[in-house]
Design brief:
The chain has helices at 47-51, 54-62, 94-99; strands at residues 9-17, 21-28, 33-40, 71-77, 82-88. The chain has 101 residues and is α+β, with helices and mostly antiparallel strands. A 5-stranded antiparallel beta sheet has the order 1-2-3-5-4.
Length: 101
């Protein structure tokens, strides 16, 4: 289980992994829904450092766009120094759609 300070998420399965993050399907107990969590691999010293992550800034600048999954929330785990980005869970990822079209 991936645990935040509120024990908010339960990891259901890993969806992918890259150089900078791991993406998992998780149960969000706060909203009672399944979500995609992008858990950044970098360990941050503080919440302020984590919130300066370039990916957060890009999503904030983009705002809402019909072809981009919007960032719903950024959560910082103080104990682990980890940043998680919460997105809506999609049926497919872009690389799979391109590969199998």
């Amino acid at each position: 289980k991936y645990q935040t300070r509120m024990k908010r998420f339960e990891v259901l399965e890993q969806l992918g992994e890259g150089t900078f993050a791991q993406v998992v399907k998780a149960k969000d107990f706060k909203n009672n829904e399944e979500v995609a969590l992008k858990v950044m691999k970098e360990e941050y010293e503080s919440e302020q450092d984590a919130l300066e992550e370039p990916e957060i800034k890009v999503h904030m600048d983009l705002g809402s766009h019909p072809y981009i999954c919007s960032l719903k929330e950024a959560t910082f785990n103080q104990n682990q120094g980890r940043l998680s980005l919460r997105f809506d869970l999609m049926d497919h990822d872009l690389s799979s759609l391109i590969k199998y079209r």
